[in-house]
Amino acid sequence: MHHPSRLRTYALPTAATLGTGVLLGLLGPLAAKSDHPVFAALSLTFSVGWSWAAYAFLVGCFCRTKTLSALLASVGLATGVTVYYVFKALSPAVLPGATDVTVVSISPGILFWSVAALVLGAPMGLAGHFARRPDLLALPFRLAVPAIAYYEATMRFEVETDPGDTVGIVTWTVVRIASAAVALALVGHAGWSLLRPSGGSQRA
């Protein structure tokens, strides 16, 4: 009698989380295999922290319980990290003009970022879960990903790009504009929601 409910609550979110974690781990290194600007931008986007934080946040959004949100966000990130480094080691990208393939060591990266995933995944998963609240208390949680994206894009724009890095300049500029726009939209929506009950009470 209770199997369908358990399937929806546990099995389906777990399968979806692990599947998207694998996909997240593959997107960055797969896109890096092409020197096309669009794929280079995709590789940058899916190989940095904010996109992984967004993944953990979305996992929390779709989980019904706080415990599941925290657990699956951490496990999904750890899965993505493992796939990311294993794929890069087994199929390293060759830079244009290069003749030799450098062997990539996976142990340090997997160890460090898997621990980071387990530690940071849970808070982001919980943020996604609490962002589902119908009141204004959800707003700070909803702003978490845009804030992280804007901050990281700004830091990378200032530190990692030079005047000739068109892909980096365009990518981080678009991320900053998009994250600011999303944040403004979320704040505007929260403000509009705050004004709506007064109208409803008058009609009642």
- Morphology: flat
The portion of residues forming beta strands comes to under 5%
Mean pLDDT score = 86
What proportion of the residues is helical, as a percent range? Answer: over 70%
Termini separation comes to: 41 Å
The Rg value, from CA coordinates, equals: 20 Å
What is the helix tally? 8
Structural class computed from helices and strand pairing: mainly alpha
What does this structure look like?
This protein is mainly α. It has eight helices and no strands. The chain has helices spanning 3-31, 37-45, 49-62, 66-90, 107-130, 139-142, 144-160, 166-203. α3 (49-62) packs antiparallel against α4 (66-90) and α4 (66-90) packs antiparallel against α5. It is flat, with a radius of gyration of 20 Å. The model is unreliable at 199-204 (pLDDT under 50).
Entry summary:
The chain is mainly α.
Summarize the helices and strands and which ones pair or pack:
Layout lengths: L2 H29 L5 H9 L3 H14 L3 H25 L16 H24 L8 H4 L1 H17 L5 H38 L1
Helix pairs in contact: 1-2, 1-3, 1-4, 2-8, 3-4, 3-5, 3-7, 4-5, 7-8
